[in-house]
Write a structure and sequence with these properties.
This protein is of the alpha+beta class and 234 residues long. It has 2 domains: 2-125; 132-233, Winged helix-like DNA-binding domain superfamily/Winged helix DNA-binding domain (Arc Repressor Mutant, subunit A, Orthogonal Bundle). The chain is 68% helix and 10% strand. It has 7 helices and 6 strands; from the N terminus they run αααβββααααβββ. The chain has helices at residues 2-40, 46-57, 64-125, 152-166, 173-181, 190-204, 207-213, and strands at 132-135, 140-143, 146-149, 214-217, 221-224, 231-233. The strands form 2 sheets. Strands 3-2-1-6 form a 4-stranded mixed sheet, covered by helices on one side. Strands 4-5 form a two-stranded antiparallel sheet. α1 packs antiparallel against α3. The longest helix has 62 residues, at 64-125. The protein is rod-shaped and about 120 Å long. It starts with a helix and ends with a strand.
């Protein structure tokens, strides 16, 4: 089916393009934010320059206490510059961390959207079954590459549905119960057939497989939602 494969490749390309554009936008926004932030941060040596300016403008400060005060200011300026430099490093690391988190969140979001779309397609199209082999003697079902061991009641229910599908029939709960039990349709009720369908789905175990394999047609009954040509019974 070249049309569907082309559609899938187009969607894949579109998803990759969205991720690429999103990552580029995140990097660009955070880069601009980093430039503005580091540009507006005070220079690490601004305090030392002010202290040096005080030394130059007040060369008449000669007493021991005054000189000691200027030395303390100089030491404070050095400490301030070291603290500010460490702040710059911390801010840089946080920006990298934020970039990584936003990119990861974008990738996960696109992945989840793609998976949801894929699940929606599967739900609309039904499960793709290439082969369905039913072995009544071994009470085993081979669905594509998956093997299911069923109870006797479940294998009988599935066999009845398979035979009806090959005849392109839809069976009601009453008809299913009548065919399996051998009773007259007048002696059977819809609930008994519905119970057999439920038990078959429970036995299959995989919710997606069982729900998509056995289709419930409103007000008509039940059928296997697969191509009749892939069904084999031994």
């Amino acid at each position: 089916m070249p049309g569907s494969s082309s559609y899938a490749s187009d969607k894949k390309f579109s998803g990759e393009r969205i991720v690429a554009l999103g990552v580029a936008a995140i990097v660009a926004i955070l880069f601009v934010a980093a430039v503005l932030l580091f540009t507006n941060l005070p220079d690490a040596n601004v305090f030392n320059e002010r202290v040096e300016q005080i030394f130059i403008q007040n060369d008449n400060l000669t007493s021991g206490a005054q000189i000691k005060l200027l030395e303390i200011l100089a030491q404070s300026g050095t400490s301030f510059s070291e603290v500010l430099a460490s702040y710059r490093t911390v801010i840089f690391v946080l920006l990298i961390f934020a970039t990584s988190l936003l990119i990861a969140a974008l990738v996960f979001l696109v992945t989840i959207i793609a998976l949801n779309r894929r699940m929606g397609e599967i739900e609309r199209a039904g499960i793709q079954v290439n082969s369905l082999l039913i072995s009544r003697a071994e009470r085993t079902v081979f669905l594509n590459n998956m093997e299911f061991k069923l109870t006797e009641a479940a294998i009988e229910t599935l066999s009845v549905l398979a035979e009806a599908r090959m005849d392109e029939d839809i069976l009601s709960g009453i008809e299913i119960e009548a065919m399996i039990s051998g009773k007259s349709s007048a002696d059977c009720d819809e609930a008994a057939g519905a119970t057999r369908i439920k038990r078959l789905r429970d036995t299959l175990g995989n919710q997606m497989v069982s729900e998509l394999l056995i289709k419930n047609v409103a007000r008509r009954g039940y059928m296997l939602a697969i191509d009749k040509d892939v069904i084999r019974m031994i």
